[in-house]
Amino acid sequence: MKSQHPPSREELAEIEIGSTEISRAQKWVLSFFFLTLIFSIPILQQMHGGAGTPPFAGIIAEAGSVLVGSSPGPSGGINANSFGRLVDANRILLRGMRDTENALTDSSFLAQSLLPPTQLFLTSVLGAGNERAYPGADRWLFYRPAIDSLTGAGFLKPKVLAARSRGGNEWAPPPQPDPTLAIDQFHRQLAERGIELILVPTPVKVSLHPNEMTTRYPGTGPAIRNSSYDRWVDSLDEGVLVFDPAPILVQNRDSTGAPQYLDTDTHWTPQAMQAVAVGLARFIRERIDLSPSADSRLSRHAGKVANLGDVAAMLTLPSSQDAYPDQSVDIVEVRDNEKLWSSDASADVLVLGDSFSNIYSLEAMGWGASAGFVEQLSFELARPIDAILRNDAGAHATREILSRELGRGRDRLEGKRVVVWQFSERELAVGDWRTYSTPRVQGDENDTGFLELDGGETMEVSGIVREISRAPRPGTVPYSDHIVFMLVTNLRLLTTDAEVPGNALIAMQSMKDSTWTSAAKYRVGDAVDVRIFNYDEIDTRDGIGALNSASLGGDLSLEEPVWGEPIEAVIETPARESPGKRFMLAIVVTGVMGALLLADRKERKGVIA
After folding, report:
1. Residue 123: how many CB atoms within 10 A of its CB?
2. In what order do the strands lie in the sheet with 241-242?
3. Where does the pLDDT of residue 609 fall: very low under 50, low under 70, confident under 90, or very high at 90 and above?
4. Which run of H or E residues covers position 210?
5. Percent of the chain at pLDDT above 90?
6. Residue 416: which H helix or E strand, with range?
7. Beta strand extents in 392-513 (DSSP E only)
8. Which end of the chain is less enclosed by CB atoms within 10 A, N or C?
9. 295 compared with 379, residue with greater pLDDT
């Protein structure tokens, strides 16, 4: 008699699958329901207003022009090698596919309808954030790249530098990861003109308040730094001055018990910023021989402002959420003879700064105006200050602007005794430390064939986009506004259809209040209608030059831009039901039709489900 062994898992699975019975009606109903669900989403998306995806035909045309050598590739130049042009064209296609996928995601009514309440549940109930924002204790929020910059390996370790230098992606060059290389080069360029360099690496939020992120750390003690921080300071060229704000912030935190950073934002409080400005002013006076300042007309005026932090905005919570309320802070405006403070290009102190300098200065950031770091430093020094500020990318953005200024014949270094370079400390570990050859004026303001407008002048033109920089996806960056630059050719006046000689380098706002504008969706080959203005006039009025931007490389970075605003037709559409109601209606209709189909088959064939 054969011994019986228990069946194996595979045999059991085969027995169970083999005995599973699905009626013909069930097959039809399930298939019908599945297909209806799959096709209803894109149909409803089109009813909702279309996907809003980039025109892939334009992307293919852009790749084709790079392939034949008629347009520059992603690196900014035309590759002489045919294989190199093929690689550049492939990068453009990959970038186009990424942009298309991102646009589909961003414009999806299903994501727009479901993501905010889902994220609110995850954050409020489960305490979970997302890939950019981490919830902490007491309704605090932290920016993930800032945490990574502290918890990661030392940024000066050879393996880390080598890995980062191989980074980037298929459509963007890798970063220059070594901060020492860029800083020492910049210091030597300034030293040739007798200008001192002072670095102000600003600690990140979790560096001062790790206890709000994890109970493993107390609320006291020195600031937490990346393991390579001290080595970096020691490796800098002799003569590079480093002003470290951390001891001042630690002392303030421990003596007052007050937070040094905003609850749901990446930046410091007004009081912490002001204390650092006082310390930096003392540091400058002790080490730099500045000319005696004239009688200052600067005065301070108290104010109050409330806003929701930039990290909270990255969570994409519903507008009605109350899990993270607006935070109210006291600011101190600096005025010059009762007018809002403004930078002075003739000053002997130049500040290069990122959003830590901008937060209470640039009104678009939502935390007030004329109350920022540079304004407080100007008041403490009792002298005017020249400033070049740009949100984010503190490792290179302000030096790039300075390079462009010098290349256009505007010597922003003339008469300067000291350059203060403020940047977020996280840039040491994650920033792109590009180098620039900017010690001397490299050009003049002669006519270069690009359209320029005088102050007060405006023009409505049409043209073809030949090159355009890229806008970041809303919610993936710690800022809510962004500017792109585009090269536009074939210019014609909209009013008379007359040809406009030359080309135009047009700067346009691509993201406002964490929402893409139409300019973010422009692609090479698009025909655009734009109202243009003098760039400097708009910058003086709205401070657009301080917003984060993505410029075009090569010689185009030296051209004078104009400011553009899209001219769009206003189309009135009838009121429609909300996407959620239409989606639920589609599900109900599908279920009813499936039930009717099942009942009909039962009646005709006697099939029992």
Report:
1. 21
2. 241-242, 196-202, 418-424, 349-353, 386-389
3. very low
4. none
5. 38
6. none
7. 418-424, 458-468, 482-493, 504-512
8. N
9. 379
Name, in order, each residue with C-beta under 8 angstroms of 185's C-beta and a sequence gap of 6 or more. 435
Q: Who contacts 335 (Cβ-Cβ below 8 Å, separation ≥6)?
A: 298, 299, 300, 301, 341, 370
pLDDT of residue 130: 87
Segment 332-349 mean pLDDT: 90
Q: Which helix (H) or strand (E) holds 426?
A: none
Say what angle helices 579-605 and 109-124 make with each other, to 10 degrees: 100
Mean pLDDT, range 362-371, rounded to an integer: 90
What are the two backbone dihedrals, phi and then psi, of residue 486, each rounded to the nearest 5 degrees?
-140, 145
- Sorted by where each starts, the structural domains of the chain and their CATH numbers stand as 25-38+573-609 (no CATH), 56-107 (no CATH), 145-290+341-430 (no CATH), 458-566 (2.40.50)
Q: What is the DSSP letter of 527?
A: E
Decide: residue 69, CB within 10 A, 0-12 exposed, 13-18 middle, 19+ buried.
Answer: middle
pLDDT band at 543 (very low <50, low <70, confident <90, very high): confident
Residue with token string 């935070």: 327
What 277-281 contacts at long range (C-beta under 8 Å, 24+ apart), as own/partner pairs, is 277/373, 277/376, 277/377, 277/379, 277/380, 278/376, 278/380, 279/243, 279/245, 279/248, 280/198, 280/200, 280/243, 280/245, 280/377, 280/380, 280/420, 281/377, 281/380, 281/381
458: CB partners within 8 A, 6+ apart: 531, 532, 533
Residue range 440-457, pLDDT digits in tens: 555 444 455 788 888 888
d(CA 341, CA 136): 36
* Cα 310 to Cα 326: distance, rounded to the nearest angstrom: 11
The whole-angstrom separation of Cα 177 and Cα 195 is 25
Closest CA to 361 of 410, 422, 417, 451: 422
How confident is the model at residue 597, as a pLDDT? 55
pLDDT for the residue numbered 114: 79
- Range with the poorest average pLDDT among 9-23, 30-44, 323-337, 338-352: 9-23
Query: Tokens representing 525?
Result: 């080959």
pLDDT at 326: 93
Q: What is the DSSP pairing of strand 327-336 with strand 339-340? A: antiparallel
Question: Which positions ≥6 away from 132 have C-beta within 8 Å?
Answer: 143, 144, 145, 311, 314, 475, 476, 478
The label of the residue with tokens 């309320």 reads: 325
> Strand 418-424 to strand 196-202: parallel, antiparallel, or no bridges (unpaired)?
parallel
CB hemisphere CA count around 306 (13 angstroms): 5
Residues in the chain: 609
Contacts 24+ apart (CB under 8 A), 283-288: 283/198, 283/241, 283/243, 284/198, 284/349, 284/381, 284/418, 284/420, 285/381, 287/196, 287/198, 287/241, 288/196, 288/198, 288/417, 288/418
The tokens of 286 are what?
């002790």
Closest CA to 564 of 447, 459, 445: 459
Report the alpha-carbon distance of residue 509 to residue 503 in Å, rounded. Answer: 19
Which value, in Å, is the radius of gyration of the alpha carbons in the chain?
Answer: 29
